[in-house]
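Re: the request from the purification team.
They wanted to know what the chain is likely to look like in 3D before they choose a buffer screen. I agreed to run a prediction and write the result into the notebook, where they can find it.
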Amino acid sequence: MSTTSIITPATLKFLKTLKKNNDRDWFAKNKNRFEATKEEMKILQATLKDELSHHDEIAQVKVYRIYRDVRFSKNKAPYKTHLSGYVERATKWKRGGYYFHIEPGHSFAGGGFWAPEKNDLSRIRQDISVNDKPLRKIITAKGFRDAFGELEGDQLKTAPRGFAKDHPAIDLLRYKQFLVTRPFTDKEVLSPDFAKKLSSVYKKMRPFFDYMSEVLTTDENGVPIE
């Protein structure tokens, strides 16, 4: 195993300083520091894809730009103060995506369904309403709880349309998003095996993703959707 860290202390220091100097003049004067962070992210991108290939089918690993779109935002700071990326799984049969976020003191790995389409959300709720045991078994398993704690995501304050407020699975039916996260310390981010640790966390999401993939690629009778 390599003893060289992919993400270096210099990158975390750059992000900390950028947070205090989030303007174009400072960024221009420190462009060489940013270019160094980009190179590290490219290495992480390639290494993570290789690690994931051992247990999943990956279409691509995308690194997001640091530049913010401020056109419709009250916050006019031009730059994000974190680095992040997204892993797209291959084929329409594998649902769910992996996310990674690098920010001093606030790094994490995430995954799930951030903004499910209306039809997908309806299909998930339909399956839960008929039998909530498969999903509940996954999210209450010790391995899941140890890795991610509780299922996360925005929820409705009341029952979704078409479902009774006293439905036995109303706690799950209220979810509008289905997300899981696992924080990383700065020490973990700077470790030589950070990509391997990310991959290991994503692998622990698989029972959750496998359940959602089966639901979203079949109809209410379990027949695959073409």
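For the purification team: The mean pLDDT is 95.
Please add any questions underneath this entry.
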